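Replying to the earlier thread about multi-chain prediction with a worked example.

Input:
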Amino acid sequence: MNDQQHIDPATLDMLEEVLEDGFIGLLETFIDDSRVKIVSLKSGLADANADVVRRSAHSLKGSSSNLGANPMAELCQRVEQQAREENLEGLDDIVEQIEAEYQHVETIMKEKMEKS
Amino acid sequence: MADCPALKILIADDTQADRMILESIVKQEGHTVVIADDGLDAVQKFSQEQPDIVLLDALMPNLDGFGAARQIRALAGENLVPIIFLTSLTDTESLVQCLDAGGDDFLQKPYNRVILQAKIKAFNRMREMHATMLVQRDQIVKHNNQLIQEQTIAKQVFDKVAHSGCLDASNVKHYVSPRAVFNGDVLVAALRPSGNMMVLLGDFTGHGLPAAIGGMPLASTFYGMVHKGFALTDILGEINAKLKTILPTGVFCCATFLEFNFRERTMTAWNGGLPDSFIYRQKSKTVEAITSRHLPLGVVPNSQLKVDCQHFELAVGDRCYLWSDGIHEARNKSGDMFGEKGLRAVFHQQPPPEQIFDEIMHAVTNFIGDGEVDDDLSLVEISMAAPDQVESQTMPRFPSPTPGLMEWSLDFEVKPSTFRYFDPLPLLLSVITEVPGLRSHSGSLYTILAELYSNALEHGVLNLDSALKQSSEGFAEYYNLRAQRLRNARRGYIRFHLSHDSREEGGRLLIRVVDSGDGFNHQLWIEDQRQGRGYSGRGIPLIRNMCESLHYRGKGNEVEVVYRWANELLKAG
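Result:
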C-alpha cells in the first residue's frame, strides 16, 4: 500500500489551503483525538458497552473522513453500524484493522508535519 | 462574497478536528464563528450570542443535536434561525429525527467547502426574506389596528349623528350591524312636532369609508328638518339636493322613507332603489310590498326628483319591515343568496307577529351557517300603534337650561307668491321653540298653528266651504278646488301676530291669525257648537282643548288663542 491508499492527498491539500497556518494544529488535534477515541473504542468493546463503541466509532468516522482517511472511515462506519444494532460480535477484528490503518495515517501525517 | 453579508455562525461539534475544519471554511467567507463542544453548550451559546445560523452535530455528549435543536427553536421564537445538521446521510432514521427536531438541512462529512458556502448563502437569503416578512407583517398589524381604532372612533361619531333619534321607541325594533355602517347603511328615525314618526333607511353605493361618509349629511339634514316639522317631500328634496352636490358621480343613496301618522293610522312611503319593503297586515296575515318607484337619492337634480308617495291605511298592530340588500344578498356555503324568497318564507310560516323580527334574524343567520359571514345586515320593524303607545326616550324634550327668547312679539305676513308654494309653519315653529320651555310643546303648538293657518288659507283667502268635506266626493272636489284656487291666487294675505310673556313658572303665548277673507258668522257657529249642532272642520274643538282661550273677532276673519305653559323643569324638580 502506498500513502494515497490511506489518505486522499487532494483532501489534505484542500485542508492545507483552507486552514493555512492552522493546518499543522489540525493534524495534531486529529492525532491526539484519534488516540483517545481508539482507546475508548477498545475499552467499550472490552466492557461490551455498545453505546460507547458506537459514539467513539461515529466520532472517528467523521473526523477521519474529513481528513481524507477514507479506508479508516469505512472501517469505523462498519463498527458504528453494528454497535447501533447492539451486536458487538466479531468487532475485535475490525477494531484491530482500524488501529493498524490509523498507524499508517499517523505516519503519513507526521511526515507531512515535518515537511511543512 | 459580496452577496452574502458577514454572519455570526454557531458551530457545535464534540470532535475538535471537525470543528477546526468547519470553523476555517466559515471564517474564510468572512463570517464570525461561535464554538460549542456539546449540546448544552450550544444552547447556552445560542442564547448568549444570538447567531444567525446554527451548524449542529447530531451525536454529541450531554445533550444531543436533536434536543439542542428543539431548545434553540424555542429560544428563537418567530425569528428564522436556520439549523443545519452535521451528519452522514447514510442513516435514514436519524435524518427523520433531525427534521422532526426542526432541522432545515444536512451537511455531510467529509465537509465540502463549496456546498457549505452555497448552503450558508441560500439560508441567509431565506433569513432576510423572513425578516422582511416579519417587518411587513408587523406593519400590517399596526396599520390594521390603527384602521380599527379609526373606525371605532368614526362609528362613535356616526352613531351620535345618525342614531340619535327615536330608534328606541317602543314600536320600533332595529338591527344595524357594525359592518353595515361601514358599507354605507344608515338608519334614522325621529318624531315630527305633530307626533308623526319618520323613518329613513338608506344604503349608499360602494363600500367602506366613502360609502359611510354620506350618511352624516343625510342624518343631520333629516333630524334638523323632522324636528322642525318639515313635510316628507321637503326633507326628501333637501337630502337629495345635498347628496347630489357633495357626492361624486356614481355614489348615491338607495333609500326608503316612511312617515307614520299614529292618530289617523296612515303611513306614507317613498322608495327609491331599495328592495321592496313589506307591510304585514296582522288581521289577514298577508304581506304587501312597498316597491321602489323612484331613482335613488343623489342621482338627479331636484328639478327632476319625483317625490310622489304611496299612501297606506294601517290597523294598530300592522308592521312595516325595511331592509337593505344585505339580507337579500346574504350567502350560504354553496354561494346561494337568501333573497326575497327567504324573507317571504319567514312570513309564510306565520310566526306570532311579535316574533317576526327575531325570526327573520334567525332565518338569515341559519341560512348563512358556516358560509362567509358578511355581517352586513340592516333590518328595522315599525309597528302601527295608538298615539299614546308610542314611547321614546327622546320624546320628553325638557327645556334647555340655556337662555333663549323670553318676552317678545312677532308680526309676520305671507302673500300669494309665498303661500302658493311655501309652508311657513316650520319657520314660525322654529322661532317659537327658541323659548327654552316651549320646545317640549312643539307638538301641540304645531297642531294649533297648522289648524289656524289652514283655516285662514282655505276658508279665508281661498274661500273654500268646509261643508264640502263631509262626503267623499266632496272631499276630492275640495282638494281639487284648493289646488286650483291656490294656483290662481293673486291677492290676499295671512298675518300672524305672536307675543310671548315668560315667568319662572311658565309662560303665555298669544297667537293671532288674520286673513284677507270674508270671515264667517262665528257667533252663530259658536251657538251651534254649544247646542251640539256643530259641523266638522276648522279643528276648533281640538284647539279649544289645548288652549286657555279661543276667540273670533271682527267679521270672523280674525282669531286669537292664548296658550299657557308651565315650566316642566320646575314640575320635575
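Residues 113-162 of chain B form the longest helix (50 residues).

Feel free to reuse this layout for your own posts.
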